[in-house]
Write a structure and sequence with these properties.
alpha+beta; single chain; 14-stranded mixed β-sheet; 18% strand; 2 domains; 14 strands
């Protein structure tokens, strides 16, 4: 019996009970839809978090926290380490920063603000991708660049704190500094304690540029990049490294020793994302503590792999329940078609052919259900992503995070569903198919008569 004839036989027999066939395919389709939609939630949240991680962090950035010594403790990084990093293959740039231990007050005219102060190596910062929204990079010792939000953080010295900010927590428009800072001289105020008195030193610096606005709305940047010369003046004034404050009430307080070439922050930038893992492995092999987007994504991927596997497993249970209907349908088909099976055997049909015919029928039911279920799942996924954010906002008054994807169906998910459904339907039809091969010819023919 040719394969074409087998298909025709299956189609003819399936038409005999369309209602039962339709309900069985419908049950299978519903189970596959449930499997795909349920698993798509895991895929959607995974995709959203990965996207957020990639946008929140520079993907080629590798943070180096220090080098582990034989004692197990980590030491700060120095110029020697930075030079070694720059020689690693596929390294684009290595930025290094020193941070002032106090947060100085900056003044211009009648406005002031406090800001984190950083000593940055401008050539490496530029190579790593530092961009300005206006102005130019500093060249002289007394030149600085400020963060994008530095101007917005300036407030009048005599302002009333209770009437200074609006509902969003931002400085009211009438209290803001409205001129451009580029080219302006501002005053940097640092302090030290002498007895019970606070002594202040003023340093005049010129703003040459303003850094580019951060990519994310929630990011706030009002820090100031100063030169090594400014840091030296501050350390000479305070008599401590990084301008640390001595406690006059604690004469035994020990000031940590910090060498001039030690850095508080070092970041390595790879040429591309593909190079990040190789550079990270090299640094870890040399006992450096590193953290990159690769580490973050690895943890996220492991967690969501477990979640997605669990969701697919739960969805598979629904397919297994639907397989009971397929088993019943095939069992009834064998009983109803006993005379046909007897005739086929009488004319010399191979038992394997008879078995194959019933397995083809069960496969048809499973694959038809999987196809319909997949189409419905895509429709539901689209509706969920479109409507659910609006429903949440209307019902709870909370707007979901921008870009959050509640459901995502990658190509692999329907393929997995088809495979699971096909295996389950084959197993469901296997037992009835085996029964069909054992039908007694004489009894079947006598029944026909």
């Amino acid at each position: 019996m040719k394969l074409k004839d087998q298909f025709q036989f299956v189609q003819q027999n399936m038409k005999k009970n369309k209602t039962r066939l339709f309900m069985t395919i419908l049950a299978t389709a519903m189970s596959v839809t449930f499997l795909i939609v349920l698993a798509s939630v895991g895929f959607g949240l995974h995709k959203s978090i990965v996207k957020e991680t990639m946008e929140r962090r520079i993907v080629t950035e590798i943070e180096v926290h220090g080098k582990q010594e034989e004692s197990g403790e980590y030491r700060q990084l120095t110029n020697k380490d930075v030079n070694a990093f720059e020689k690693i293959e596929d390294v684009k740039a290595v930025i290094r920063q020193k941070r002032l231990a106090q947060t100085p007050m900056y003044e211009i005219g009648q406005h002031q603000t406090s800001a984190e102060t950083v000593v940055a190596h401008m050539p490496s910062e530029t190579k790593a991708g530092l961009e300005l929204s206006e102005g130019k990079l500093p060249v002289a010792e007394n030149e600085v660049i400020v963060g994008y939000h530095f101007v917005q953080s300036l407030v009048p010295k005599d302002a009333d704190p209770e009437n200074l900010y609006d509902e969003k927590g931002e400085v009211k428009n009438e209290s803001r500094y409205k001129e451009s800072l580029v080219g302006k001289e501002i005053t940097l105020n640092v302090v030290k304690l002498e007895g019970d008195n606070e002594v202040q030193k003023q340093l005049k610096v010129i703003v040459t540029g303003i850094r580019k606005k951060p990519t994310k709305e929630w990011m706030y940047d009002n820090s100031v990049f100063v030169s090594e010369g400014i840091l030296t003046q501050i350390e000479n004034f305070t008599g401590t490294p990084r301008g640390m404050m001595k406690d006059p009430n604690n004469p035994d307080m020990k000031i940590p020793e910090i060498k001039n070439d030690q850095y508080d922050l070092v970041k390595v930038y790879a040429k591309d994302l593909e190079s990040v893992k190789g550079i990270s492995d090299t640094l870890e092999g040399d006992n450096y503590g590193v953290y990159s987007v690769v580490n973050e994504l690895k943890e996220v991927n492991i967690m969501f792999t477990i979640v997605k596997t669990g969701l697919i497993f739960i969805g598979t249970i629904a397919v297994l329940i639907a397989s009971i209907g397929i088993y019943n349908t095939m069992t009834m088909a064998v009983t109803e078609r006993a005379p046909d099976i007897g005739i086929m055997k009488a004319i010399g049909a191979n038992p394997k052919t008879i078995k194959k015919i019933f397995l083809l029928e069960s496969s048809y039911i499973g694959l038809a259900g999987a196809a319909i279920g997949t189409v419905v799942a895509y429709i539901i996924s689209f509706v969920v992503n479109f409507a659910l954010p609006m429903i949440i906002e209307q019902a709870f008054g909370e707007k979901p995070p921008e870009g959050l994807m509640f459901s995502y169906i990658p190509l692999s998910l329907p393929i997995i569903s088809f495979i699971i459904c096909y295996i389950v339907t084959i197993l469901s039809g296997l037992r009835p198919a085996q029964r069909a091969t054992k039908v007694d010819v004489l009894q079947a023919m006598r029944r026909e008569l």
